[in-house]
Design goal:
Elements lengths: L1 E2 L2 E7 L3 E2 L4 E10 L5 E7 L6 E5 L4 E3 L8 E5 L2 E6 L2 E10 L6 E14 L3 E14 L9 H8 L3 E2 L5 E6 L3 E7 L7 E5 L12 E5 L2 E7 L10 E8 L4 E10 L6 H21 L6 H13 L5 H31 L13 H19 L6 H6 L10 H14 L7 H8 L4 H24 L1 H5 L6 H9 L1 H19 L3 H27 L4 H19 L10 E2 L2 H9 L4 E6 L4 H11 L2 H9 L3 E6 L5 H9 L7 E5 L7 E4 L5 H17 L13
Parallel strand pairs: 3-12, 13-20, 14-20, 21-23, 22-23
Antiparallel strand pairs: 1-2, 2-4, 4-10, 5-9, 6-11, 7-10, 8-9, 11-12, 14-15, 15-18, 16-19, 17-18, 19-20, 22-24, 24-25
Helix pairs in contact: 2-8, 2-9, 3-9, 4-7, 4-9, 5-12, 5-13, 5-14, 8-9, 12-13, 13-14, 17-19
Amino acid sequence: MKAQHLTAELISDAGTIAPGGRSRVALALTLEPGWHVYWVYAGDSGEPPQVQWSVPSGFSIGPMQYPAPSRLPLGPLMDYGYEGTAVFPFNVSTSPQAPLGNADLKAHVRWLVCREVCVPGKAYLGLNLNVIPQASSETNKLIDAAVGAEPVKVPTAVKIGVTATRDTLMLNVVTGKKEISAEYYPLDDDSIRNAADQKIEPIADGIRLVTERADISDMLPKELKGVLKLSDGRSYMLDVPVGSATAHSGAGDERGLLLAVVLAFAGGIILNLMPCVFPVLFLKALALVGRAGESRTRQRAHGMAYTAGILCSFWLIVGALLTLRALGKQAGWGFQLQSPGFVVAMTCLLFFMALSLAGMFDLGLTWTSAGDDLARKGGYFGSFFTGVLATVVATPCTAPLMGAAIGFALSQNALVTFAVFTSLAFGLALPYFALTFVPGWASKLPRPGRWMETLKQFTSVPLFLTVVWLIWIYGRLSGSTTGDSTDHVARLLVGLLILAIGGWILGRWPARRWGYIAVAVTAAAALAFPLVTAQPDRLRWSPFSNAALEEAQSQGKPVFVDFTAAWCLSCQVNEKAVLQDRVVEQELLRRHYVLLRADWTRYDPEITSELSRVGRSGVPTYVIISGPWERATHVLPELLTRGVVLDAIRQAGIQQNSQMPAPLPGGKTGS
């Protein structure tokens, strides 16, 4: 049958089949030049052909079989399919009791044929098979070629290993001979980025293929399923476990390790200049100025304690990364920022530090920089925890040169990963460590004076900027929609306000035990408030439109319209306190209300017109439309209570059941 851009027909081996025998039939699609149809997994777009069979009693037809496809680039996308003539075989079998004679096989076929545009098509096709005692052994060359191109199980002589890093997927194929080509076709969206280049490296006994992982993947897949097509048209079905890529021994890998260690060390030094870390380093330098009279031995001990804090923190991070990798997940530098809880804690910590630096309250230089007053008692715990703090606040930042080093480290074994991260830690610790160990450098620091307070306050600016950035991250992490994201950000801002109140208490009544208790309480509240999940709507609200309203009325359903806006505080209070009340929600559900939300945050002429129709000029406005007749509206008061809403729902229900709406001026009824 001739259709748009292709010809569709059913073909068979010899046109005959014996009772209790087997044969083959196929759907053959002959395409115009430049057009294609799709494989079982179509790639970035499209869908495969589909066949629904209708066969006589005693016949059975197996599933559709797909030859190995080709990669078909289409702009920035990659499709998997067939050009020229595409043949899809089916195995046919008959029962021993199948009657002799002609048998009509019918097929309803649907396809999608594409070039720059896609055209769906369908056809009703038929094929006649002659059931005879001794069927012909003749075969159809097109079906033979299609079956020969189908993927088969991997032979025992062929070894295929799959390894993965955060960004790449590598197939190592050993066939016993040098291969010159290889293509991998996934069976799902989660393994590779379809349009990415597939880089091949022929080796003496096989081939290596490397490509990019899918953007949506964030952990190592347990197994890889797909089709691997090699030289000479051979193709294999893959179902191979995925391992984490590790380093291979050799001079090249040793040079790579050395380069990664050097880059990590340099990146750690530069990390001190990032807005997250610089204020902490600056405060430690000021503390060193304040301890100018101490012995060199004590100053060096503080430098060693600070370095130990950084090293221990980095080792904990590496341990967490390796544990996640062992569990099949992938994570990298800053993986903590994927957790909304960690982002809230970081935001509150940096905001509290910034308030102190800006002069709202004074915890003392060492208390501020380390978060621990033990340092004021002469111990080295303050310097140790300053190193911990420097590591924590460094996680939102990535310095130049760090990316390549960390990427290399996370694709290697545990020993190499520890070595690279240890080098990064030493780079971060180096500036302060050098100041404490090289007397000439420390002597060049300026003398204590009023400039210290001014500069300390100035360093609050990069911390406040980092807080703004973390708030933006929290919004992206927490909300699946724009409105939901805004709600979470607002809750975090309220938490920061609570924290600022705690800072004000500390500044107004310093060094008071009850003041510290009050700060602890406000800090706990500030952390908890953004993380407590707001009560979601249990009802499904649809956007308001006259068309939606008329559709509900035509079905005889009552309608509740909520005229609201994001900037309307009364609207938000009514929604949270009344419209999300469980009793109100149950009543609306029981009476099968259609719920429409007229969002007037931005000017909408349709909503404005409907407000005028019900005699209102602003929000909040709540309207119940109780029947399919000319709009019988019940306008509720601006401030809602549970009783007001329930009474209005019941009144509207009585009027709807009686089908006698009470008239109001202008054709409305009111409450």
